[in-house]
Amino acid sequence: MTSPRYRRAPLLALAAVLLLLPGTAAAQDPVAPPAPAEVATPDRPSYDVSLRSDADGMHWTGRQTVSFRNASRTPLRSVDVRLWGNGTDRCGAPGAPSPVRVSRVAGGAPRPLAVGCTALRIDLPAPLPYRARTSISFDVSIAVPHRIHRFGRDGAHRYLGNALPLLSVRDARGPHLDPDVGFGESFYTLTGDFRVVLDHPDTLVVPATGTTTRRAGAPGRTVSTSVARGVRDFAWAAGPFRTRRVTTPGGVRLNAYWTATTSPEGVALDLKNAVGSVDAFGKRFGRYPYGELDLVMSNRLADFGSMEFPGLVLLWTEPEGSAVVHEIAHQWFYGIVGNDQFAAPWLDESFAQYANQTYYRDDTATCWEDQGYWPSGTAALTRTMGYYADGHRSEYVQVVYMRGACALHDLERVLGSRTMAAVLRGYVRDHWQGVATTADFKRAAQAATAKDLGPFWTEHRIF
User: Fold this and answer.
1) Which pLDDT score, from 0 to 100, does residue 31 have?
2) Rounded CA gap, 380 and 200, in Å?
3) pLDDT digits (tens, 9 = 90+) for 239-272
4) What is the pTM of this model?
5) Distance (Å, rounded) from C-alpha 331 to C-alpha 336?
6) Residue 177: inside a domain, yes or no?
7) Among candidates 360, 276, 277, 262, which has minimal Cα distance to 319?
8) Please, what is the average pLDDT of the chain?
9) Are strands 192-201 and 43-53 parallel, antiparallel or unpaired?
10) The pLDDT value given to residue 360
11) Is 421 a member of any domain?
12) Please, which residues have CB within 8 angstroms of residue 282's CB and are 6 or more apart in sequence?
């Protein structure tokens, strides 16, 4: 189950969900140290993918090529490809292999799969020098799991989030091969360009990241080509979706897709909130850069809630709507301003929840005091997903969503609304389609005021 997503009254909803999360004994796990100032590599990836589906979109097979550059002055001898779609099933079982499989690797020598079959190291034929570029390619086989999930099925509808293999990141800490802990996100990727060609039956409507064009394929089939630039991931869905397209006053095209059982009232409310929030966030943080955004809605996604991907969000939609504003905020916080989601989950979830509450004008004047206590002596906003997975899952929502968002509201009260808005806009601008750390945000905030923010960071446990 991924991290929960929340709608209009997030603090009450979060408190209720806390009662459902299992808690175990605390562990003395150190707070993650600040990331070193080191260029991440391999960078500027370009993905070229061609996949063909079976009759109902449950299986996709084809070829994927990714080219990349070595941004490090240290020669690059290997790269890691993450198969995040295997996070739940891991290495599978006899007769039930992992859902994402790679074979016939060219451009390097593959090693055995690692980290629960989510990591494939490929040794390059020769060390790749600084700023040099090369490519690898491989066959891909994707079997959609039989579960309602961001990578799963919902009746006749298929969701392929985290299904496409992606390059992992290396920096001064070495390769980032963190595990999928089963909730929240563990992803850390750099922005790149994607060209994904999906050959599928005419009966399947296929929303996808990027701008999509369609042409007739073989009899009874359609070829959908999606192009996306400067994104960290690529997701798609397939099924007999109903559709509608609207354009916001700010010029962003919203493509709505929903299942036949999804509430019409919920669809209409999601569209209304999406139109308002994507333009509002564009004015507040910087214009949405991808031209269009797909909203994929179903009333059957309660098992995992909602999930953001660049240019596409999956939404558990009921008559009262969904977490669409929170998920759209993620287009800026993790999408445009990236972060290591395993090492610093607060940098995307807390910021998205703060944006959500700001959009709805929730009363947050006393939200920090209202919570009253930290869930443990070891809790802190800057804990890693490893900390939460190691006996602290019951703290995850309260700290990352509730206290994190409240800390940002508190900072706004310290700095003033205008200054806080300028800080966030500058922070987004300075890390546009890059990667930010907690230290980066603290520097941006401190530079905006003569007040010493040291006591603020200590009180709010932002280390």
Assistant:
1) 52
2) 47
3) 999 999 999 999 999 999 999 999 999 999 999 9
4) 0.93
5) 6
6) no
7) 262
8) 93
9) parallel
10) 98
11) yes
12) 250, 252, 288
pLDDT value for 174: 93
Cα separations in angstroms, 4 against 200, 240, 242, 297: 32, 26, 26, 16
Cα dihedral 169, 212, 296, 102 sign: negative
Torsion sign (Cα): 229, 234, 239, 241: negative
Q: Is 330 annotated as a binding residue?
A: yes
- Say how many residues make up the chain: 463
Within-domain flag for 375: yes
Longest dimension (CA), the chain: 68
Please say if the pLDDT value at position 275 is more than 90. Answer: yes
CA distances from 287 to 101, 190, 291, 293, 461 (A): 37, 20, 10, 13, 31
| C-alpha to C-alpha distance for 349 and 27, rounded to whole angstroms | 23
Asked if residue 42 has a cis previous peptide bond (ω within 30° of 0), the answer is yes
Domain assignment of residue 17, yes or no = yes
Residue 377 sits in which domain range?
10-35+337-459
Q: Is 176 annotated as a binding residue?
A: no
What whole-number distance in Å separates Cα of residue 186 and Cα of residue 196?
A: 24
Question: Does residue 431 have a known ligand-binding role?
Answer: no
Three-state secondary structure string covering the chain: CCCCCCCCCHHHHHHHHHCCCCCCCCCCCCCCCCCCCCCCECEEEEEEEEEEECCCCCEEEEEEEEEEECCCCCCEEEEEEECHHHCCCCCCECCECCCEEEEEEECCEECCCECCCCEEEEEEEEEECCCCEEEEEEEEEEECCCCCCCEEEECCEEEECCCCCEECCEECCEECCCCCCCCCCCCCCCCEEEEEEEEEECCCECCECCEEEEEECCCCEEEEEEEEEEECCCCEEEECCEEEEEECCCCCEEEEEECCCCCHHHHHHHHHHHHHHHHHHHHHHCCCCCCEEEEEEECCCCCCCCEEECCEEEEECECCECCHHHHHHCCCECCCEECCCCCCCHHHHHHHHHHHHHHHCCCCCCHHHHHCCCCCCCCCCCCCHHHHHCCCHHHHHHHHHHHHHHHHHHHHHHHCHHHHHHHHHHHHHHCCCEECCHHHHHHHHHCCCCCCCHHHHHHCCCC
Q: How far apart are CA 343 and CA 316, in angstroms?
A: 27
- Give the model confidence (pLDDT) of 50-67 as tens digits: 999 999 999 999 999 999
CATH of residue 30:
1.10.390.10
Domain count, the chain: 1
Write the CB contacts of 124 (distance below 8 Å, at least 6 apart in sequence): 76, 77, 78, 79, 107, 108, 134, 136
Residue corresponding to tokens 């192009």:
227
